[in-house]
Amino acid sequence: MSAPLNQLALPSAAVAAPAGADVRRFLIGFVGLTLLSGMTIGMNKVLSTLLGLHLGVSNLQLAVISSAETFAMALGTIPAGYILARGNPKYLYAAVSLTLSAAFCALPWLPGWEWVALLMFLVGLCISLRIVAMSTVFLVRLPEIGQARAGWYKGTLTLGMQFAGPLTGNYAIAHLGLKAGFLVSAGMFALLAVLGWRVLPESSGRKPGANAGDAAASWRALWRLPAVRTTYLFEILASFTASSVGVFSLLLAIRVLHWPHQHAVWLMAVQGLSFVLVLLGLGKLVLGSPHRERIYGGAHLAITLALLLLGTLPNTAAYLFASVLLGLGLGVNALVNTDRIGRAPVDKARVSSHLTLFGMVGGTGGALAAGRLADSIGLQHVFLLWLLPWLAAWCFYHLRKPTPVLPKGEMSA
């Protein structure tokens, strides 16, 4: 009996080995693609701001230039989901990246700030398609990649956007000049087109003829899934909170803690590093734990505690501890949410576009609301106000009787 069993086992192992090698190749290429993509986004924020200053624009005009890209990214996410659900991610990503390369070659030679704002709006539309394409492909491949790596996409993208990208932009401008910095960015987009062509698949994972019975796609069908509702809510709250703290952390460090300007960035950096640490290093520990739902609830409590510290204890130790707590809490929140959506029976392109949209709208709304309220009630009181939606959501979702996590689909919250 042993010989036939061995003969049956050999073909199975032969099939598993190439499959594992294919996943490793994809993961290495995808991480490189994501990091470089994040770097271009972070670098271009620096370049567009400095270009506006070079043109001698007013504060309002600079805000228009800066927000044009973000507004277009939010506006383009839902159409991007529809396009990618029916299109070819490889062709779309390459075409959009080459378009962006051409746009950044032209940007520094435009005659006025209005043209810069218009082109940045078009850039934002293109970037929304690229982001949704990458998040869609990652969610489709997540069951093969493994739950321990659920945070790798967002962690690597954040690392590029918040650290490597701005540093690269500053270095390029300091040593090569502003116009050359735009040409470097254009070259990076061209490189992304080639890398995306090699890494991304020709399908978003949607089967021909698939209907709502195969994967939830319509808004109504998605909203009927408790896992999707929970994910959407906590992603909006997380984006709302992260942007509020992120935008005003420099102000807190300078005005409340009286740190020198060159050190003020570390309050933001501590939060960002804690966030990336969770996404890149703690996926297996968090998602593989039998107490995963308790860790998820604990992460949301950590966020509320961070907001409480920021609102009540204006000293260096408390603010640094709050930044760590906020980064860890937001990181665990992102990990669990990504894994849930990766396992859920949903149209990944559609959900990716929704999550991208919620992140941008929540981020923009949080920053604007915090700025508006800070003038009337004070910035620290704004953080105390943000406690209310978190406490309400925590009580509603974490004090209910827990339900077992289904291995596929997570049809229950």
From TrEMBL:
The keyword Cell membrane applies. It comes from the Bacteria. It is a multi-pass membrane protein. It is found in: Cell membrane. SUPFAM superfamilies: MFS general substrate transporter. The chain crosses the membrane at residues 26-43, 63-84, 91-110, 116-140, 152-174, 180-200, 232-257, 263-283, 295-313, 319-336, 357-374, 380-399. Keywords: Cell membrane, Membrane, Transmembrane, Transmembrane helix. This is MFS transporter. It comes from Duganella aceris. The lineage of its organism: Bacteria, Pseudomonadati, Pseudomonadota, Betaproteobacteria, Burkholderiales.
